[in-house]
Amino acid sequence: MIKQEFCYSQLNDLDLSVTFYSKQNDSSAKATLIYLHGGGLLYGSRDDLPETYCELLVEKGYNLLTVDYPLAPEVKLPTIINCLREAIDWFLKNYQSILGLERSDYFLFGRSAGGFLSYLLSARYALPEQKGLISFYGYYDLINPAFSQPSSYYNQFPKIAPLTAQALIQPEPIAGVSINERFSLYLSGRQFGNWLSYLTNSPSEKETFSLTDTELAQLPPTFLAHSSADQDVPVEASRIASNKISNVTYEEVEKLPHDFDGDLTKNEGLNVYHALIEWLDKVLATT
């Protein structure tokens, strides 16, 4: 597996980059997974997907394109979405000339907040080259009451006052920030129920960035995965979505934390990725 890095856009003085994971000298990949990382939209890194899964996907014929996006609250959701549209456009413009691919087929793949972004882009920036949507423990709306109320789970941790957390906010846009650097901003937002204020310009934008039932029904073929014991994003987000999306495959694991695929000592994560690859092959066989 080889990794190549490219800059797809700039925001002010911030370079926004992608990493392309592929087989050496192999232009015949079945499709490319455009991957969006998690981190509550406040932190995270494009290359956070464990190498085990990257290697498995590439070995099975799928390239990965992992994408930077500017983080909130330095920018808000409209800017984040615009940058990700630029990333998709960059892929479609350069898949042959720069990436050396025969096919422009892609799937949007996100974990947690990246799943949310993948839902939004799949519904509102639908392009013929997109063959499907993959959301691991993601969500499709911001009007879920759990996101606006103090979280009982996060309130088990020492309280971080909003003013203390807000000292981490930078004067200019940033991307690719580690969990150690910014988790306390997310933690405080969930403890006090003000996380969404970091993402949107006004409370009414919560509805703007929530998919309707009609939008859910019109999504492309979708693969969802979630843990029944998710302490961060309620599992109901994927259960409800699986009933409203017309073409959906849903894998639910039991009694594991939010990012259930992060623990490589457990088989559940790897099992779900094998199920994902089967699903990918099936979708491509029918399109």
Could you explain how this protein is built, in words?
With 287 residues, the protein is an alpha/beta fold. The chain has one domain (2-144, 203-285): Rossmann fold (3-Layer(aba) Sandwich), CATH 3.40.50.1820. Helix content is 33%, strand content 20%. It contains nine helices and eight strands. The protein has helices at residues 51-59, 77-94, 113-124, 162-166, 179-192, 205-208, 213-217, 236-244, 267-285; strands spanning 2-11, 14-22, 31-36, 62-67, 106-111, 130-136, 222-227, 248-253. An eight-stranded mixed sheet has the order 1-2-4-3-5-6-7-8, sandwiched between helices. 44% of the residues are buried. Residues 33-260 form the Alpha/beta hydrolase fold-3 domain.
CATH class: Alpha Beta
Distance from first to last alpha carbon:
27 Å
The low-confidence runs, each spanning 5 or more residues with pLDDT under 50, are none
Give the CATH topology.
Answer: Rossmann fold
For the CA atoms, what is the radius of gyration?
18 Å
Estimated share of beta-strand residues? 15-25%
